[in-house]
Request: fold
Amino acid sequence: MSETTNWTGSASGARPGTMTVEIIRDGTHMTGTLRLLEPGVGELHSRFVGQWTTYNKLSAHTLEHFMSNSGGAVTLPQTGKMEGTFDARENVITGYSRTEIDALGEFRWIQTVSPHPKLPGVLVGAPVQPARYWERFAARTKIFFGNSRITWDKRYTKWLMIALQLTLAGLVGYLLVAFVIDFLVGN
Reply:
């Protein structure tokens, strides 16, 4: 009988970000899907097939079907491998992965209680590198668009960033000109 578990955590190294993972385990055989949210890049999806041994070692020699919904051109791997170890005391899986185009990457997953993994955009408490202000703003905007009937296109993030930078530059320019005029007039 198969058992489905859900995990959430972080990745570091070649592709840093927040991960959600679903593992379907039937004896020592395991299959699953993983989703990686890379800040500023987008979301990467992949499937894996492998073994979960009785010694709590995970080995997925088939890491494939990579898909991405990033806003720009991204080179996706075609195949990869993943190795990990399950710590039953802490309920944590730690390990590393490698693809034909990426260097070694490490991951750490914590088992979630929820029957369905949370979306990477709304994970709470996962260790991630601090995002810049505009990335947090764009993430909140994506959540807004996700709850409305307006569709969100990933390219909007880039245009939103440019619009915010131009607005800030205009405001700074206006204040600088006003200061120079006041200085020259003597006010």
